[in-house]
TrEMBL record:
<dbReference type="Pfam" id="PF06271">
    <property type="entry name" value="RDD"/>
</dbReference>
<feature type="domain" description="RDD">
    <location>
        <begin position="45"/>
        <end position="153"/>
    </location>
</feature>
<keyword id="KW-0812">Transmembrane</keyword>
<protein>
    <submittedName>
        <fullName>RDD family protein</fullName>
    </submittedName>
</protein>
<feature type="transmembrane region" description="Helical">
    <location>
        <begin position="85"/>
        <end position="104"/>
    </location>
</feature>
<keyword id="KW-1003">Cell membrane</keyword>
<dbReference type="InterPro" id="IPR010432">
    <property type="entry name" value="RDD"/>
</dbReference>
<feature type="transmembrane region" description="Helical">
    <location>
        <begin position="203"/>
        <end position="224"/>
    </location>
</feature>
<dbReference type="InterPro" id="IPR051791">
    <property type="entry name" value="Pra-immunoreactive"/>
</dbReference>
<keyword id="KW-1133">Transmembrane helix</keyword>
<feature type="transmembrane region" description="Helical">
    <location>
        <begin position="51"/>
        <end position="73"/>
    </location>
</feature>
<keyword id="KW-0472">Membrane</keyword>
């Protein structure tokens, strides 16, 4: 039926205009949809089912993301990609993994988590959301709910009621997979509780999209305009070889309880030499690459103790011979210097 206030065409069964939220005539839309159950529990999904669906999707994402990134690194190695191109490839693969649930919500009956919890996402007409709406909803969901923070969930429920902010700002609804299209349309048409927050949610959605686009533009600009840095590329290969050596030194220390001052294995081609301090375990790798020949990469173990058990928590990486701009990001610790 057509709203006499704003002209919006509403599905049969609506008692309030979906656009302006004003009452429609005739007001008794229930008669226009005979045989439809109007109990909210049979249409809108419960909080528990939605949390279960999200947790299942996050578990699958945690398994999928490392595989995609691992494959991306191998592809980058085969194509000899580095710097901004490598970052762009890995970022695209990570984004694809995160948005996979959005694609499934739009193109199928829902993501694996939603199918497991027997719920699905629909728009105001009871149909699957479009791809743009679904992507924006997913971005808003994971941007506004970091690690399903309980205070965030409670605050959102207190302010916005049963519908989450990311659903309100995209005009999406999470419903039971068993609910009929007619029942969904009736319940949405008569759900006036969220109307007062709809404009606020849309504003938040617009600001979120603008922020994401601005961030993507800045990252893309930085990747495209980044100047080639051959010395940093050479240092990255040396740091990778030094990290592998540090891993083996750590395994030996864990097994014997002491650091061996001698390196008894073959040295990687990018390294000229490796030295190990028997007291502190500090590993000094000297580069063999002509671009940074003689430059030292220093890895110092950070040893922690708990319940009489000692382990190496991490290796701090730095170089007394290379500038910060010439070092990979993860090798810019200001802690140690190379021993004389």
């Amino acid at each position: 039926m057509r709203c006499t206030h704003c002209g919006w065409t509403n599905p049969a069964g609506f008692t309030h205009c979906h656009n302006c939220r004003k009452a429609l005539t005739p007001t008794d839309a229930r008669a226009a949809v005979p045989g439809v159950s109007h109990a909210s529990g049979e249409v809108f999904a419960g909080e528990g089912a939605r949390i279960v669906a999200t947790l299942v999707d996050l578990c699958l994402l945690a398994a999928l993301l490392p595989l995609l990134l691992y494959g991306g690194l191998h592809l980058a190695g085969a194509l000899q990609l580095g710097g901004g191109a490598l970052f762009g490839l890995l970022a695209a693969l990570a984004l694809l993994a995160i948005l996979s649930t959005a694609l499934l919500d739009s193109w199928t009956r829902g993501s694996p988590g939603k199918r497991f919890a027997r719920i699905r996402v629909v728009d105001a007409d009871g149909d699957a959301p479009g791809i743009g709406r679904s992507i924006l909803r997913t971005i808003g969901k994971y941007a506004l709910h970091p690690l399903l923070s309980l205070p965030v969930l409670l605050l959102e429920r207190l302010v916005f009621g049963r519908h989450s902010l990311h659903n309100l700002m995209t005009e999406s609804y999470v419903v039971s997979a068993k609910a009929s299209r007619e029942a969904i349309r009736y319940r949405i048409g008569n759900d006036t509780g969220s109307a007062r927050f709809r404009r606020l949610a849309r504003l938040v959605g617009v600001l979120l999209v603008v922020a994401i686009l601005a961030l993507a533009a800045l990252l893309g600009y930085a990747a495209v305009t980044a100047e080639p840095n051959p010395r940093r590329d050479a240092a990255r290969a040396v740091v990778a070889a030094a990290n592998e050596a540090a891993r083996r030194v750590g395994d030996s220390w864990q097994a014997t309880g002491s650091f061996s001052p001698q390196w008894n294995e073959a040295v990687a081609p990018v390294l000229e030499s490796l030295r190990i301090d028997a007291v502190s375990g500090t590993l000094t790798a000297t580069a063999n690459d002509p671009l940074i020949a003689g430059a030292r990469i220093v890895l110092t173990p950070e040893i922690v103790s708990k319940n009489d058990h000692r382990r190496i928590k991490s290796w701090r990486c730095t170089s007394p011979d290379l500038t910060t701009r010439e070092l990979p990001f993860r090798c810019r610790s200001t802690k140690p210097n190379a021993p004389d």
